[in-house]
Design brief:
Layout lengths: L2 H14 L1 H38 L4 E6 L20 H10 L3 E16 L2 E10 L3 H4 L4 E4 L4 H6 L3 E4 L1 H7 L9 E4 L2 E9 L4 E2 L2 E2 L3 E5 H9 L6 E6 L5 H15 L10 E5 H44 L1 H9 L4 H38 L7 H27 L3 H6 L2
Parallel strand pairs: 3-10, 5-7
Antiparallel strand pairs: 1-11, 1-12, 2-3, 2-6, 2-11, 4-7, 5-10, 6-7, 8-9
Length: 405
């Protein structure tokens, strides 16, 4: 029997019981929609994570203070050390050939006043290379210069959130603000970076590092060194060289615990991507269970259909239909149910992904391979679970089938 005829007969058989056909395909529809939407959420989360981390600066190594151990071995945790200095950053820039630029930072919360507005925000003393290293340029005015660093100038560059808080209706550049007890002149406003986790990266004020250290906070160390490496291929080499150089500068032997940590941004990206991939696979597997449940539903309905159509099968065999004709006929019906459910499920999954993005603000990416995977799995479910009922129908004895009322 030609495949076209089998498809026509299958469509007629399914149309005779439209409600039953829809309910049978419902499990496949829900399963495919769940797989597509789950994978799209996972893909969106991976891309969002990659963009957020990349926004912190490309080819970036971050050097942070290490632990401090008191007598008796009691540790004060990562970041407690006060041994990282601006001079360490200058040495890295001068002596590690793979390094393109280095920025140093010391940050601390401070009280900020502009006119009648009084707010608490994070104040970061940084070096002039900070915008280039962290890929974070000003969009209004300008960033401070090496001359401002050397003269410990009282100039400030505002994050977008701070600008909107202190100067909601006017320009900030050229205005005067008070940070703690010192007056500063605003010379720029930074590009918006948005939220990261539970924090707002735009809720910050940048001032020259020397000004922060000597005039505002009274310290001589830094909280972090940001090292921009020339190429991604040189990241590991640069990290090793930076660690070796800082150990030598801090007089730390090879077997002793360092008073700093060097973090490779590529490793952080890969770690987040790995976690997202694992979660996505786990959720997709859970969603695929509903596809299997849908397949079992198809098998049950097809078995009922075989029972209901036993006499029809007997008549068809009596007029010359072969075992293969009957097998193909019922298999086509099962696959038609699952493929129809797959198409509707893909449409529902894409729609659900768009709705999630619109209502929840989550990034979602519907990838072609996710659609192909879900659709292919749906078709496979139809073949797998439709095969047994089809074989059972094909194996019926025509004489016994004709006797069935």
């Amino acid at each position: 029997m030609p495949l076209r005829a089998s498809l026509r007969i299958a469509a007629r058989a399914l149309a005779l019981n439209p409600l039953r056909s829809i309910l049978t395909a419902l499990g496949v529809i829900i399963g495919v929609a769940a797989v597509v939407s789950t994978i799209s959420i996972g893909a969106g989360a991976r891309e969002s994570t990659r963009q957020q981390i990349t926004a912190l600066g490309t080819n970036l190594l971050t050097v942070i203070p290490g632990r401090v151990r008191a007598p008796g071995g009691i540790g004060q945790g990562v970041g407690a050390s006060q041994t990282l200095t601006l001079e360490d950053g200058e040495a890295i820039a001068a002596e590690v050939p793979e390094v393109e630029a280095v920025a140093a930072e010391f940050n601390r919360p401070a009280q900020v006043v502009a006119g009648a507005i009084n707010d608490t925000t994070n104040v970061a003393g940084v070096t002039p290379s900070y915008p280039a290293v962290r890929s974070w340029p000003p969009v209004e005015g300008a960033f401070f210069t090496d001359r401002d660093m050397q003269s410990r100038s009282r100039v400030a560059v505002l994050g977008k959130t701070v600008k909107e808080t202190l100067f909601p209706e006017g320009d900030a550049v050229g205005q005067r603000i008070r940070i703690n007890r010192g007056m500063f002149t605003v010379i720029g406003v930074m590009e918006s970076k948005g939220a990261s986790g539970f924090g707002d990266r735009d809720d910050i004020i940048f001032i020259p590092l020397t000004t922060a250290q000597k005039r505002l906070f009274g310290v001589d160390f830094v909280r972090a060194l940001y090292v921009k490496v020339r190429t991604p291929e040189e990241m590991d080499t640069a990290a090793s060289q930076v660690e070796t150089l800082l150990r030598a500068r801090h007089d730390i032997g090879g077997g002793a615990e360092a008073d700093f940590f060097v973090r490779n941004q590529a490793d952080v990206v890969e770690a987040f991507q790995g976690v997202n991939r694992t979660i996505t696979i786990l959720l997709a597997v859970i969603a695929a269970v509903s596809l299997i449940v849908g397949g079992i539903g198809i098998m049950n309905i097809m078995l009922v259909s075989v029972t209901e159509r036993t006499r029809e099968i007997g008549i068809r065999k009596a007029v010359g239909a072969t075992r293969g004709n009957i097998l193909v006929q019922f298999l086509v019906e099962a696959v038609a149910l699952s493929v129809t459910g797959g198409v509707l499920g893909v449409l529902l999954g894409v729609g659900a992904s768009r709705l999630i993005t619109s209502l929840a603000g989550w990034a979602t990416i519907v990838t072609p391979w996710a659609v192909a995977l879900a659709f292919g799995f749906a078709a496979g479910v139809g073949i797998f679970f439709g095969l047994y009922p089809a074989q059972r129908a094909a194996a019926l004895d025509p004489i016994e089938a004709l006797r069935t009322e």
